[in-house]
Design brief:
The chain is mostly helical. It has a domain of about 110 residues: Up-down Bundle (Receptor-associated Protein), CATH 1.20.81. Helix content is about 75%, strand content about 0%. It contains eight helices and no strands. Helix 1 runs antiparallel to helix 2 and helix 7 runs antiparallel to helix 8. About 15% of the residues are buried. About 20% of the residues have low confidence.
Length: about 250
Amino acid sequence: MTALATAAAGSSAVAVVLLARPRPAVGRVSRGPTAARPEPVRRTSGRRPSRAGPSRPVRVGVALLALATAAVAFGPPVAGGAAIAAVICRAVVVQARRRRQRADVDRALPDLLDLLRIAVAAGHPVFRCIVDVTERAPASVRPPLRRVVERVDRGSPLVFELVAAADHLGSLGPALTDALVAASVTGAPLGPALDRVTATARDRRRRSAEVAARRLPVTLLFPLVCCVLPAFVLLAVVPLLVGSLGSLRP
């Protein structure tokens, strides 16, 4: 018990140190050509900007403190089981979040392609099209485009950054970046290639919407069976049974 108390105290101290550790600044100091470029001001229409979640040291410290408390209060086996369950739950949550983010990117890709098509029709080169589209694109596809613009401004080759961003632009990201790379390197017309990718992206978005619509009745079965039907039984059937049983008394 003394060893468990010592471990709990040590874990608590580590948690306190991690909680008291200041978070590093999020912003980056830009050098080179981007230093003189003012960033566009994004208005939030009266809404407060979303706050970032706790940093990794904070989460680790809180987890250590919780495990130490569980070990002291319930014993090491319970703490070990809780740790395993927490790891499994976190893996499931992370996988679900990644699938949801990828689905959001796939849904937003046709809108991004429409914006790129407008920029190409205006006669801009490939990199200028990406710069003009980045801040107007849907929120789910902005981060990879911003990374491409920032790294190219710092001197990285455009072709290399487009290839690196392909995996972050959804299932059709490689097709989009291949078209952009071909237009940038060989000067091939970008409009027809974008039209083909746009048609495929719209078809996939339509099919995914149809699949989600067919899955909706199955998803609604759980609240129907577990919430609506029990409430109906409690409010409609049970009072009738109670009244009938009361009338059967001599």
